[in-house]
Amino acid sequence: MLTSQPTRLTPDNITTAAKIVTQLLNSTPTEEVAVAAVATVSQLLSANIPDVGTVSSSATNSLTSELASFSLQHKEGESLLVQPNLVVQSVGGLGASRGVEFLAQTGLSDQFVADRIHLNTSTSQLSNDNTSALSVQILIQLHPGASRAGESVGFVLYQNDLLFQSVKFKAPLGTTRRVISASLTNGGRLGLVELRFRPTNATGAVLHDFACVFWDYAVSDWSTAGCRKNGSSNTSLGCVCDHTTNFAVLMSFRNNYAYTEALNWISILGCSLSVAGASVTIIFQILTRRSRKANVTLLLVSICFSLLVFYLLFLLGINNHPPNSPPGAKEANVALPSDEHEERDSGVCTAVAALLHYFLLATFAWNTLYATQIFLLVLRPLAQNDRPFTIAALVAGWGFPAAVVAVTLGATYTPQHPLNYRQEEFCWLAALDKEKRLDLRKPMLWGFLLPVALMLLYNCVIYVYFTVETCRTNPTLRSTRINSPVKKVLSSLSLSVVLGLSWVLGYLLLIDTASSNNVVGIIFCVLTTTQGLQIFFLFTARTSAFKKKLSELLQLIPVPEIALHHRKFVLWKGSRDKTSESYTTMSTSQF
């Protein structure tokens, strides 16, 4: 009665109840008391305790050991006690049996029911019937020809491993393991013990590996000594051991990533065009640097260089390829440290993620410095000394992103747990928890979104200030130069592009993740992947210097004379008489 509400049980309650049940089972109980004791243990297995490690291991070890002894008390015939979370099966008087098989099948629920428990007292191998409904299957092989007088076999099947709390094996995914105890009376000559377990499932994960283990009372933990793997499939995991005790399989899972391509055609096309646009802009700005202030050239070249490297890394390295060891059972029977497998980092994907992190932050840092330069130019248009700003810009533009990346890596990354820093599917910052929700502890928030949000907010303020100052007319000043509304719009548009204001849309997408498939998501993808191309058109292709340079380059390109002589251009020199010599024909190359 005291354990009938398992959700209210505390570790002390479980420890006390385990001691009492152990005493009851040790006192040769009546059938009524035995049923009550087994029912009590079944209720204990339903307890929901966050830190089960506080339960006394000596009390649980004594209880499971006494249950194994209790399962051997029937010297003749069969005895079966079934509770929702615990099954005790005894069989005695084996005669000339070569082996005893115990089988538990799954039902509509996880609870055990008597009609799903089967016993075969005369078999030498595991049966293959109804393997699709298999939960746990065990076969104790007995040496042929040995005397079976007074010999008995007992089985105890636990719904979970609450009474077997391991120190070495952790379960961050919250998985549990069914435990099967097999016992043979003293003097019984044991052959081998064969087992099959149905693989359990973990949400959003696939089986990576498993280990065949038994509970070693000497160390109060799982051990692989004397056990080996015996094949595996989608419906069963096989083990073979050379002794009897409490058996289980420890399973490790890895996230079931689809490893889909991150780059759709919009991203590929946009990034490729931006690579070309940023490259041309860098070359042009360097060649024509004498025609403008040094700071303007430094800022724009730095922005384009950061974007160029970021786009190249994104195109070539954003996709993380699946690890060399695919999910599935390995041959070696090695004890597992956790039910969550995390591939040890090879370094390549993490390096790409760190470089992407750095150069994208550098892009926003130089955007912010460009905004600061615009503000200073509007505020003090006649200022001449640019050297202090240049030095400060170099330190801030390249140093601030390096500091953020260094702190982020140092706080989150270890070779054993690389996914604390980056994602598994893509070489980019980790952002989501196991339920695919934004995790405040992941570096995506405080290592990228927060600093970028502050820089974007600053850029927006400067943009509004610049737009107001550009559109405002001072009545006290007169000028013969008139700026058309189109030119003012182009100036504001150019500044919004170079300040990266299109990234504001990304924060709108964070509010509603479903909107990544709608128009806003598409616009965000187009604007951000083509930022390098936009800078090229607005800051390079529109300038008269670029048009002049392009014209000079075209004149240097040799055109094959023979290939163009079939086209003639007629220049009229004054006479309308087609037969007049005033007409002069020229080949295309001459024209």
What does this structure look like?
With 591 residues, this protein is α+β, with helices and mostly antiparallel strands. Helix content is 40%, strand content 17%. It has helices at 11-26, 31-44, 57-70, 265-287, 294-317, 348-379, 387-412, 443-471, 485-498, 504-511, 519-529, 531-541, 544-556, 561-564, and strands at residues 77-83, 86-92, 99-105, 117-120, 134-142, 152-158, 179-184, 190-197, 205-216, 221-223, 227-232, 237-241, 246-255, 568-571, 584-587. It has a seven-stranded antiparallel beta sheet, covered by helices on one side. A six-stranded antiparallel beta sheet has the order 4-3-5-8-12-11, with no helix packed on it. The chain starts with 10 loop residues before the first helix and ends with a strand.
* Class of secondary structure makeup: alpha+beta
Task: Quote the beta fraction.
Answer: 15-25%
Summarize model confidence as the mean pLDDT: 83
Number of strands: 15
Head-to-tail CA distance between termini:
106 Å
Helix content: 40-55%
**Tally of contiguous helical segments:** 14
Q: What overall form do the CA principal axes indicate?
A: elongated
Strand ordering within the main sheet:
1-2-6-7-13-9-10
Q: How large is the radius of gyration?
A: 38 Å
Poorly predicted regions: 562-591
